[in-house]
Amino acid sequence: MATQPIHLPEDRYLDPDPATRKVAWHLYQRVRDLPLLCTHGHVDPRMFADPDYSFGTPTQLILIPDHYIFRMLYSQGVPLEKLAIPRRDGGPTETDHRAAWQVFADHYHLFRGTPTGAWLAHEFREVFGVQQRLSAETAQAVYDQIAERLATPEFRPRRLFERFNIEVMSTTDPAHSRLEHHQSLQRSGWKGRIIPTFRPDGVVNLDAPGWRRNLDLLSEASGTAVDSYPALIRALENRRAYFRSLGAVATDHAAVTPYTEELTPQEADSVFGRALRGEATPEDATRFTGHMLMESARMSIEDGLVMQLHPGSFRNHNPDLFAKFGPDMGADIPVATEYTRNLRPLLSKYGNDTRLTLILFMLDESALARELAPLAGHYPALRLGPPWWFHDSINGMTRFRQRVSETAGLYNTVGFNDDTRAFPSIPARHDLARRVDANWLAGLVARGIVALDEAEEMMHACAYDLAEAAYKLG
Fold first, then answer.
1. Mean pLDDT value of segment 106-120
2. Which of 108, 267, 392, 437 has the most crowded CB, counting CB atoms within 10 A?
3. Is residue 1 a part of any domain in this protein?
4. 441: three-class secondary structure by DSSP
5. End-to-end CA distance of the chain
């Protein structure tokens, strides 16, 4: 097949109706150059702590960290070993990054019509200046172009952070983290704002992989021997204060379900004691996680950290892949999720307290109009996070706005976050989200639901204001 240019129309993703498209383009133009608020993500802060950090090869930068990419190839029978992805069990894997890139390029057609395809097209052309579409034939030429740019000072992480117009970026860090790279950033004098996010799952979810080791690390970091439930609470409060001292504005929590339950101190200590002895049951783990969500809400009211909750994902669904490669390899699969009853204990106790901001992320779209929008449209403490994982797509974000906005309104949502490990894809992800929101708002204008000046204000809120307010970034 002849070499083709990257397909990236200027007014992409907008409604084909000319009148709606014109309004959408107008709204998008008003916000396209606003700074990016990256309020939730997984980019490694290490790359910014070292001013001379190099991304390495194109394969190391684009392919290896991005499970959106390699899960698609895996679904078509491409072994992850062929993509140069390291195995945690020490098994052999491809070491020739050009060969891995060629495999990626050979299968690039798999991304047609997907959000990953849209992000990659933007990333290749707008970030790296690549003009020709990636294919089996162009693989090595594109590799060379990207590698040449990565060797220049303009493609060091700090320079790209500034070029991307990122105002703030949040990382996600375990409770025991010493945050060495965040400390280095603060000492460096560099003006980029990169802040940690406190994630305690590894110590509060009793069934978390490596739970006991994580507990030992928490003891070391906090200076508290975590040998009882009261000691756990003291250690967590200690670490939250430390994270706040380095700029943290939020916590992050993952659970299979949003189940909440308040245990008595005696019950909590008893369950925790059984876990320390290796005797905790699955029911113990469920109840303790539910209780610790309640405790986390209480702590957030006291210290002001925004609370994020990501339920509804069956983590590491593929046991063979988990054994070979570990977590976060594209095998986290959504499950049907109930919110109204599960969250009632937490919301009954804390949902009316305006000092709490609980941002709820969702994977079960069937709950959007039925439960989530009514809940967020009632409780002052509750906000809805943007579509996540499988739904941060053109259709997913559109469905979210359509199913949530009439009941919860726009202002009970929190804008967009990129939730990515793939640093160079961040501008593409925000740009796509802004175009989708512009398109949705243009539809409201076209149908006479809102006036153009109202849509302009709503557009600015989608792109910037909602995230700034929800995460207290002002």
1. 98
2. 437
3. no
4. helix
5. 51
